[in-house]
UniProtKB/TrEMBL annotation:
Choline-specific glycerophosphodiesterase that hydrolyzes glycerophosphocholine (GPC) and lysophosphatidylcholine (LPC) and contributes to supplying choline to the cells. Has a preference for LPC with short (12:0 and 14:0) or polyunsaturated (18:2 and 20:4) fatty acids. In vitro, hydrolyzes only choline-containing lysophospholipids, such as sphingosylphosphorylcholine (SPC), platelet-activating factor (PAF) and lysoPAF, but not other lysophospholipids. Its EC number is 3.1.4.38. It is a lipid-anchor; GPI-anchor. Belongs to the nucleotide pyrophosphatase/phosphodiesterase family. PANTHER family: ECTONUCLEOTIDE PYROPHOSPHATASE/PHOSPHODIESTERASE, GLYCEROPHOSPHOCHOLINE CHOLINEPHOSPHODIESTERASE ENPP6. Keywords: Cell membrane, Disulfide bond, Glycoprotein, GPI-anchor, Hydrolase, Lipid degradation, Lipid metabolism, Lipoprotein, Membrane, Metal-binding, Phosphoprotein, Signal, Zinc. Gene3D superfamilies: 3.30.1360.180, Alkaline Phosphatase, subunit A (3.40.720.10). It is found in: Cell membrane. GO terms for biological process: lipid catabolic process. This is glycerophosphocholine cholinephosphodiesterase. Its main location: membrane. It catalyses: 1-(5Z,8Z,11Z,14Z-eicosatetraenoyl)-sn-glycero-3-phosphocholine + H2O = 1-(5Z,8Z,11Z,14Z-eicosatetraenoyl)-sn-glycerol + phosphocholine + H(+); sn-glycerol 3-phosphocholine + H2O = phosphocholine + glycerol + H(+); glycero-2-phosphocholine + H2O = phosphocholine + glycerol + H(+); sphing-4-enine-phosphocholine + H2O = sphing-4-enine + phosphocholine + H(+).
C-alpha cells in the first residue's frame, strides 16, 4: 500500500541487476551511488492534526511556509498509526526498523532485561548503550552502512551505539538542543548531503517536552509548531542554495500524538493505586505501566489491581498472554508479566512508588495510551523527486516507513513486519 505514494521508475533487466549485485560485493563500500539522498526528520509528539490546531489559533497555512511547500509539492497522509506502547523509544525503533515492539525488543522508554539484569532508562544511563538492547532490529543507518551507504544522525536515540558491529558515519548524541542549535544541525546535515552522505536523520524533541509541560491548550504548542516550520523553511532554502533540491527526498514524521490531561481541579481525571513495595520486584510507572510482581505475590498483586479497577475504573489490566494481539506486544522476554493501561485522558497515580517518568500530576499533556486512540495519531509528510506531488494518502503504520526509506535509498531491507 505504501508504494502508491512513490513515483515508480523501473529500468534495467535481470542481467543488469545481477551484475550490480556482484559489483556491490566485489567492491564493498564502493557500491552503486544512490540516485537520491534522503533526509528524515522525526518530530517527537507532533499530532496529525497540529496544522489544524494552528489554524484554529489564527496561524494559517500560508503562515507556515515549510508545511505549505510540502503540501503543494509532496505527499500528505491522513495520519501515522503508532505501535504499542505509544511512547518514544518503542516507536522510534519501529519507525527505523519496520518492526513491532515485540520483534525489536525496545518495549518501553524504561525497561528491565531479566537476562542481563540491567535497566534501560530512556537511553540515558551507561547500560542503555550496550548493543544487546538494540540488536533485535536493524535500524536504517545500520542497513545503509552494511550496504556501503553513509548516514549522519543528529540527536537520534541509539546512533551512538555499536549495533551489529556497525555505527553511522556521523552521530551527534541525543540531547535537547536550543532552537538555534537545531538550525545549525539542519545546515550541517545539508552539508553532509553535499559531501556525499546518503542519509541524514534529525530528531526534534522540543515539541514533546512542551506538550508534557503545558498541554495542548497553550500558546507554547503553537510556538513549537512554528519553530518546526522554521526548520523546514531553512532546510528547503539550504537544499536549493546547494542545488540539492532535485536530488534529495524529505520525509518528516512523528512517533505518536498527544492528549490533554487534567491532574488537578474539579475536572481532574486521576486514578490512585497503592501497591506495597514488598510485593513487587520492579514497576515502571506511566500511562502504560509495566509491573513485575515477585513470583510468590503475583496473584495478590493482580487482585489488588482488580479491586482498584472495580472501585475506580478508567484502566485495564492484562497478563502478558492476554494483551490484545493487534498490539503485537506479547512475544518478547522484556515485556512485563502484568500491564496496566490507563484509558485515554486518565492519569494513574502510583502511591509509594518511584516515578521514573516524573510525577504524573506534573503533566498537562501526554501520550502512552492505546494506538487506536485518535489522540495518539502521528503525522507523515514527504517531498522530493521520488514522491508524487499534491498527493493525499490514507493512514500509514509506523512499521511501514523503514521499507519506504530503503526503497528511496535503493537498499535491500532487513527482515521486517
Amino acid at each position: 500500500q505504501i508504494t502508491s505514494v512513490i513515483t515508480m521508475k523501473f529500468s534495467g533487466c535481470i542481467f543488469f541487476s545481477l551484475l550490480l549485485f556482484q559489483l556491490k560485493f566485489a567492491f564493498g563500500k564502493q557500491a552503486k551511488k544512490h540516485k537520491h539522498a534522503l533526509i528524515t526528520i522525526l518530530v517527537d509528539g507532533f499530532r496529525n492534526d497540529y496544522l489544524e490546531l494552528a489554524r484554529k489559533n489564527g496561524i494559517r497555512l500560508r503562515d507556515l511556509k515549510g508545511f505549505k511547500h510540502i503540501l503543494k509539492n509532496g505527499v500528505e497522509t491522513d495520519y501515522l498509526q503508532p505501535v504499542y506502547p505509544t511512547n518514544s523509544i518503542p516507536n522510534h525503533y519501529s519507525l527505523m526498523t519496520g518492526l513491532y515492539s515485540e520483534s525489536h525488543g525496545m518495549v518501553e522508554n524504561w525497561m528491565f532485561d531479566p537476562i542481563y539484569g540491567t535497566t534501560f532508562l530512556l537511553a540515558a544511563n551507561p547500560e542503555s548503550k550496550e548493543p544487546y538492547w538494540w540488536e533485535g532490529g536493524d535500524p536504517l543507518w545500520i542497513t545503509a552502512q552494511r550496504q556501503g551507504k553513509r548516514s549522519a544522525l543528529y540527536y537520534w536515540f541509539g546512533c551512538d551505539v555499536e549495533i551489529h558491529g556497525l555505527r553511522p558515519e556521523h552521530c551527534t548524541p541525543n540531547t535537547v538542543p536550543s532552537h538555534e542549535e537545531m538550525k545549525d544541525s539542519i545546515i550541517e546535515a545539508v552539508e553532509q548531503i553535499k559531501d556525499g552522505v546518503d542519509h541524514a536523520g534529525i530528531y526534534v524533541e522540543t515539541l514533546d517536552i512542551t506538550g508534557h509541560k503545558y498541554g495542548l491548550n497553550h500558546t507554547k504548542i503553537i510556538e513549537g509548531i512554528q519553530q518546526v516550520d522554521e526548520l523546514l523553511v531553512l532546510l528547503f532554502k539550504q537544499l536549493k542554495e546547494h542545488k540539492l533540491h532535485k536530488t534529495t527526498d524529505i520525509m518528516i514524521f512523528s512517533d505518536h500524538g498527544f492528549t490533554q490531561v487534567y491532574p488537578h481541579g474539579d475536572n481532574k481525571k486521576v486514578v490512585s493505586i497503592e501497591l506495597d513495595n514488598d510485593l513487587i520486584f520492579l514497576m515502571v510507572p506511566g500511562f502504560m505501566t509495566s509491573v513485575l510482581p515477585k513470583m510468590e505475590h503475583a496473584m495478590e498483586v493482580y487482585q489488588i489491581l482488580q479491586e482498584a479497577r472495580n472501585k475506580q475504573g478508567h484502566f485495564d489490566i492484562y497478563w502478558k498472554e492476554e494483551i490484545p494481539e493487534r498490539w503485537h506486544y506479547q512475544n518478547h522476554y522484556r515485556i512485563a508479566p502484568l500491564i496496566v493501561q490507563a484509558h485515554s485522558g486518565w492519569i494513574i497515580e502510583w502511591l509509594n512508588q518511584l516515578q521514573l517518568q516524573g510525577n504524573a500530576r506534573d503533566y498537562l499533556g501526554t501520550h502512552g495510551y492505546v494506538p487506536e486512540s485518535v489522540e495518539m495519531r502521528g503525522m507523515f509528510y514527504a517531498e522530493g523527486p521520488s514522491f508524487k506531488r499534491r498527493f493525499k494518502h490514507g493512514p500509514v503504520s509506523a512499521v511501514d516507513l523503514y521499507q519506504l526509506m530503503c526503497h528511496v535509498l535503493e537498499l535491500q531491507p532487513s527482515p521486517h513486519n
